[in-house]
Amino acid sequence: MDKQSVLAKLGIDTVTEGASHGSWLATTGPQIVSENPATGRPLGALAAARRPDGQLVLARALERFAEWRLRPAPRRAELVRRLGELLRRHQAALGELFSVEVGKIRSEGLAEVQEMIDICDFAVGLGRQLYGLTMPSERPRHRMFEQWHPLGPVGIITAFNVPGAVWAWNAAIAAVCGDVCLWKPSPLAPLSAVAIQELCHQAMHAEDADGVFCLLVGDADVGKWMAEEARIPLVSFTGSIAVGRSVGTTVAARLGRAILELGGNNAVTVLADAPLDLAVRGITFGAVGTTGQRCTSTRRVFADRRVAGALTERLVRAFASVRVGDPLEEGVLAGPLVSARAVERYEETLALVRQQGGEVLVGGQRLDRPGHFVAPTLVRAPRQASFPIAWDETFAPIVYLFEVESLEQALADQNAVTQGLSSAIFTDSLRAAERFLSAAGSDCGIANVNLGTSGAEIGGAFGGEKDTGGGREAGSDAWKAYMRRQTCTVNWGDELPLAQGVDFPLD
Ligand code: NAD
User: Fold this and answer.
1) Ligand 1 centroid, distance to 161 Cα (angstroms)
2) Domain residue spans in the chain?
3) Ligand 1 nearest atom to the CA of residue 464, by list position
4) In whole angstroms, what is the distance from residue 345 CA to residue 436 CA?
5) CATH fold of 266-449, please?
6) How far, rounded to the nearest angstrom, does the alpha carbon of residue 418 sit from its chain's CA centroid?
7) Is residue 466 within 8 Å of 130, Cβ to Cβ?
8) Which one, of 37, 35, 2, lies nearest residue 373 by Cα?
9) What CATH number is given for 3-262+469-486 in this structure?
10) How far apart are the CA of 26 and the centre of ligand 1, in A?
11) What are 23-61's pLDDT values in tens digits?
């Protein structure tokens, strides 16, 4: 599959510019080259956007914001409805582009576009549900209520591994909330961003809404500019903990708001009474889905010692049976890693695994073929406390299997790491499951029973605790982060009683 045929299906002839506020702007930054990780060959290149392009785009976005914030939310939702329809129409081609550019298998590429469609549907409904509360005032003849207003331009900085859906979680909700969006995608997935922006152009032109969805394909410096720029009241950052820490502190220093969606180190606990078929399926998908490059990928498994032998045997068989190859080929379950550097990191991690006493049970090597392919890897690990490599996230299909004595030990080890994104338990015991979900149980933003760590739905709020950043995106009431809350009190009486009964006699 070459770039031309994939982009042609999306109606794109050439890609040269990296910035848009509704129409493309000529950018002059260094070339950003997109590569097909399944072949190692370039797919295309474009001139990166730089800070001055950001200033220009922001000025146009602010002009649009002045009008957009006054459009009724159900009318704003029409833009997102149109975008959702365009995504439906182009689902196959866009999904294929995600596969070609970041190496997801076809089904996962399609599923990512489905997730974009789902959040558009959710946001359209939200257009009539941006509810504020009314509360009784303690003062006679007073009415008190909260209302929600649009916030302003939202900076959206995204990671390579979700080239469309994370942007959509943010942008669909922000647009309905009355905000405008400036998106800086990963330089590893520029063509996917350009293709999505083309669809945004169509939707925005039809709704007279140019400037609501803006794009700046650039390197880290454009992201730094967004973090520093005081006219961007909210920065939603998705990526590694190290970069998120720097973005978060920069935004905090100017007292801006940040949504941080950072790295995970996700664990599955398998108790002695677990439904093993489900556990094997859940762990294997969690390990090899998106080739271990999901923030929610399973990294650690804590198996009760009574079931560890049987589980290990079945996982070894399952991992060995996973077909690795061209992500668009029928029957392939794991594509390539995203880059040559990612393969190096996989190898560096496995060197440390061996050095620290881990035993590779299956996998453990790169594949001898063009592109960035590695084998899904299962490691029998010693106690977590003496196995430091398990405390870090390696963005690759490597799972550490620990034997534990009890649920209490599994919980303590699961929660001991600094990250807090996704967790799961497999058990038929109601009491064990409730213990896991209790206030003294899993400390993660996501806690599942009898399903794996990976593959969230948009209906819930998505995000994690501790070093994962504490942000929440997508469904539930995550929209509140994209608006400003105003508490209003109206006195419709003839007197001015003061709150808390303050006496203030004034002649
Ligand atoms: P990354 O941190 O290298 O890059 C993320 C984005 O930040 C990119 O767009 C990059 O260009 C930009 N960037 C780099 N330096 C910057 C700086 N100094 N200031 C501002 N922006 C900067 O992450 P990645 O390798 O693309 O993605 C993998 C990581 O993302 C993993 O840790 C994964 O767990 C995490 N992730 C988290 C979630 C989540 O929802 N929690 C989702 C997807 C990925």
Assistant:
1) 9
2) 3-262+469-486, 266-449
3) 41
4) 33
5) Aldehyde Dehydrogenase; Chain A, domain 2 (3.40.309)
6) 19
7) no
8) 37
9) 3.40.605.10
10) 26
11) 999 998 999 999 999 999 999 999 999 999 999 999 999
